[in-house]
Cobalamin biosynthesis protein CobD
Amino acid sequence: MSLVLTMSLAVVIDGLLGEPRRWHPLVGFGRVASALEHRLARPQTGAPEQRLRGTLAAVLAIAPAVMACFALRMSLATGAYAGLAFDVLMLWLALGQRSLRDHALAVREALRRDDLDGARHAVGRIVSRDCTQLDAVGVSRATVESVLENGSDAVFGALFWFAIAGSPGVIAYRLCNTLDAMWGYRTPRHVYFGRFAARLDDLMNFIPARLTALSYALLGRTGSALRCWRTQARHWESPNAGPVMAAGAGALLVQLGGPARYHGEPRFRPMLGTGAIPQVGDIDRSLRLVHGSVVLWLACLWLLARWSGHA
């Protein structure tokens, strides 16, 4: 039951406060990762050496932080309240549901004001594609895609790894996810250097992504979501984003994917989902799907704790 309490408190605090506006540990971690990349990345070398350097950089970035978290948590093991407070703090710092909601609502409000430039700027803060030429429909589609995909990365992955491995687990997950966001691009600089970080992130997200897809399906149009997941997800480039976005699009009865530009290069992405092209109102629907899935996860954990306590 303490696990459910810890997760519920962290979710509530994230909903009330969001991410720290100053002194967020991930900002410091990003600086460390950038320094390691500057020191170790050598795009002019061969692929094997680049992969080795990227693996070393990832280990040097993640391992000390996880070990420090583990040691600190063990030192608090004898104090129930201190341990609880530490766990709530670590999970809160790893969650990003409120931040995701705030960014998505900023896009929605700009679209409602017919401020297309403002909407493009706002969506550009949560997606990596080129947003300068998007129309209102393209902005809405990109926002819904980001909410569904980042719901898995910024919320459910963190909850899953905290449930599996406590504070060290959620810290390892969040740092790995951050490295993937920094180095996981197929650019000449990162295609080999970021390979280890990208593969590790894929591995850590494999189960959470599919649990997220199942949650979206259960809370939306279930049959459509499961059908889209089964038939469309394998065509998506990312092995984890595919199930999440296909199931989410099917649950909402919208179409996602299609052409987009990344780092100045056009890329055609398979279509996901079914039904209508996303409109501004679908941003709210995608946010409700993520929020409802969080409630579902906590309710399932509470029922599991109650059942195991009486078993």
Observations:
- The chain has one domain: 2-310.
- The two ends are 14 Å apart (CA to CA).
- The CA atoms of residues 45 and 51 lie 10 Å apart.
- The chain is about 75% helix and 5% strand.
